[in-house]
Amino acid sequence: MNGEVNYLFPVKVMRFFDILSQPDLDNVKKSLNFNNHWQTKTNLQNNKIFETLKTSIIIKSYQYLNDDFYVFEDLQINEMWGNVLKPGKMHEPHNHSNNFLSGVFYVESDEETSIRFLDPKSAASIFKPSVKKWTLSNSDTWFYPSTKNSLILFPSYLLHYVPMNNTKNDR
User: Fold this and answer.
1) Cα separation, 21 vs 91, whole angstroms
2) Strand blocks (E) in 24-90
3) For 24, phi and psi rounded to 5 degrees?
4) Which one of 118, 132, 139, 147 counts the least CB within 10 Å of its CB?
5) Cα separation of 157 and 101, whole Å?
6) Residue 114 to residues 111, 162, 164: CA-CA distances in angstroms?
7) Is-contact 75 62, C-beta < 8 A?
8) Which of 154, 116, 126, 161 is nearest to 13 (CA)?
9) How confident is the model over 35-45, as pLDDT tens digits?
10) Are strands 160-162 and 150-155 parallel, antiparallel or unpaired?
């Protein structure tokens, strides 16, 4: 080919595995308090029990930003919380417009659950040809399976959701 291929305005999603040691993961898991609700309080970043997780998230966020040559002085986590998906429920498509980066950390997983991301370019799906094989460059939805002790970082503007829990167990 006499030319070049460029991907303009790509959206970066980074996945990291084995974020915490098993004892730290166990401490985080037993410290999540849902009080019969689907979400914990949103200030877990201020709880000493979550300090190792918070530090790991910040280190990975530095990596995310440094890889793209962003200029910044310091990072902070504004809010950190835990969610449980009850049977028959889903997390509707949403974003986190009050931040630059967002992330999800899986304390536990059934390996069947996934987080789904929607293409932020709304005009991209208005008209498009049939697809032989779905790839990152021709999809308007992409998913990553939930993997225990993994972290996914993504731009906060990126719409994401978790499909309905069709099991009889909390996820």
Assistant:
1) 28
2) none
3) -65, -40
4) 132
5) 8
6) 8, 6, 10
7) yes
8) 154
9) 777 888 999 99
10) unpaired
Find, among 76, 71, 33, the residue nearest to 54 by Cα: 76
User: pTM of the full predicted structure?
Assistant: 0.92
- The identity of residue 92, as a single letter, is E
* Burial zone of 103 (CB within 10 Å; 0-12 exposed, 13-18 middle, 19+ buried): buried
Confidence tier at 171 by pLDDT (50, 70, 90) = confident
Question: Which residue do the tokens 């990291």 mark?
Answer: 16
> Could you tell me if 61 and 19 are in contact, meaning their C-beta atoms sit under 8 angstroms apart?
no
39-64 pLDDT, tens digit per residue, is 889 999 999 999 999 999 999 999 99
How far, in Å, CA of 171 to CA of 85, rounded?
A: 5
Q: Which amino acid is at 153?
A: L
Residue type, 30: K
Residue type at 142? W
